[in-house]
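We modelled the chain as a single entity of 205 amino acids. Its sequence is:
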Amino acid sequence: MQTSNSTHSTQHDTRERILATGQSLILGKGFSALGLSEILGAAAVPKGSFYHYFQSKEGFGVAMLERYFADYQPRLQELLLEGDLPARERVIRYFASWQQKAEQSACQTLCLAVKLAAEVSDLSEPMRLSLTVGMQGITRKLAEALRQVQLDGDLSADCNIDELAEFLYATWVGASLLSKVNLHLRPLDIAMQQTKTLLQPTNAR
């Protein structure tokens, strides 16, 4: 039993190393430009190991996205739904983390979902579906936080929360892409200004 557990742990570690290494490289080069040999070389695993865990590069891409979104959920929970800040401030804090990441990388680094959204949507249907499921999960979590903003009285009672969540997420995805293209923070700064306006406390309007 101990040997079996040890083997399982080793296999998990190898699979995780391939996924983590691939994600790091893809954040820099993109999915299409990155070859399997580069991933395997950086991860220090033989080609046979890759095909033990993934049927294809596309299958690897799906697994990588599923891993990314699963790992991102606790961060979402922490930023949007936990802590002593009012719900409105937690939503602002979440989007401020987008600004901070862009600023730290001089607008060079996008999150994996935004990085791959435009690239793989026409390239791979399974990866597109993984992005769809993952992004919808983010939007649902954002909507959950916005409902609390509404309950706090900082959003109109007749506001469509689901649509607002989709609008805000789409706005920030687009702003992130524009910041990457233009290599400056202005699109994200504008997104923040408009987000704060939309979420302006009712008694301040």
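As a brief sanity check on the tokenised model: The mean pLDDT is 89. The two ends are 65 Å apart (CA to CA).
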